[in-house]
Amino acid sequence: MVRDFESDGSFEHGEIEVVVTRPRLTPEAVRAASPLLSAAERRRASRFAFDCDRRRFVLARAQLRRLLAARLATRPEAVELVYGVHGKPALAPPFVTSDLRFNLSHSNDLVVYAFSRRCEIGIDVEAVRAMRDADDIAARFFSGWENRAYRSLHSRDKPLGFFHCWTRKEAFVKALGDGLSYPLDRFDVSLAPGEPARLRRLERAPGDERRWHMDSFSPAPGFVGAIVTEGC
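RESULT FIELD:
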């Protein structure tokens, strides 16, 4: 579904599209982007403690509206969004009949967007780096099988294995629409470097493993991403 690519751009496969951007966090870009946001999004932007986080949010949401508008044949300012119980964005009427689904994620200065027709979708991206508390996080948030698989990795492979697991789990719960309210130990994902991305086990969620498709990709050097779709 998603192939590795090492530069900004986009990838399409059937009804799935991934777009990768690196927005320039300049004051001029933020001023141009701000009018595209809704009043609620501007209020949310104003609550960020750090200016760099506010700029990233404004530019990422403005770009989302531009990308949605291009696919809906309308103006970015006309795009209206609604949010699920756990915060997942979706199109509001009158665009809901387009059956366009989308999701986004960002890490550092990189933002990735995923679009699909008819099937639920989730995406996540992270910069791969060593973290002092990675073992503790894995013990707390990974499933038992995932934690054992992670701890069995060679030390040089553990950072990539950790973020393979993290992005794949995040992308799944985002596609599900439940956010972190869905217990992370109720499903297993593959994580070893070189092993294909897949959902190994799933408990008490819509459908079953066969309805969910999981893939990994590299949006830029030093980053790993995951995308999950249902029924595509």
